[in-house]
Amino acid sequence: MQQKPLRLTWKNVRGIAGLLLGTLLLLSAASDSIAQSGRRPPKRPASPDPLPPKQEEPPVKPSSTETSKPRIPVKVVWHLQDISSSTVYLRIVETGCLERLSQSGAISASPAEDLNRKRASDIAKASTDTYVLWFELEVDMAEAGRYGMGRVPPEYLYVTYEIFTPGTGKTKSSGRIYQRTRGPGGVPLPVPRTVSAEYSLRYAGREMADRLLAALGLPHPSERN
Q1: Mean pLDDT of the chain
Q2: Which domain holds residue 135?
Q3: Range with the poorest average pLDDT among 24-33, 70-79, 139-148
């Protein structure tokens, strides 16, 4: 039997096109489903590491200079009665005094040269905080018959001192210091004439410093030679 040739009609073309379109849509949907099933959800960004707790800074400790009490200023001055005399022995007394005051943590001492009593008092009066320790050397009249005319031997000298108060210039304390040596434990002993006057005058200056500390109500430093 002879077959009839297949005749394409517009209806047949539309059916075939619809079938192909449906197939493509199914294949596309299946591909998207497979792709989505294998895809991992995007990773959420990790939160930043928490900052370590802020450590409080330790309080600033004041330096020792800030916590220590201020030192009392003292000016040590001397007066030369006879301008023809030497200042050597006055300076020996001054050295012993400053040496002793330097051992005290409560005093800030400084030297000054040749001022009479009035000027020393005026310096203290003009200051608000500085004491003035004024001294001079005098001759022990009890020993006057032991030397002849001329320069007085230094062993016959003694110290006259006066402490002037800041702001008023008035005398806080005064006295005399005779030459003597120191025995065991710093005990004063009478001066044998064989002992050097420089040595005993130096100790007179140290004793004058101790009297200043006592007048200001301050403790004496430990004995140091």
Answers
A1: 78
A2: 71-215
A3: 24-33
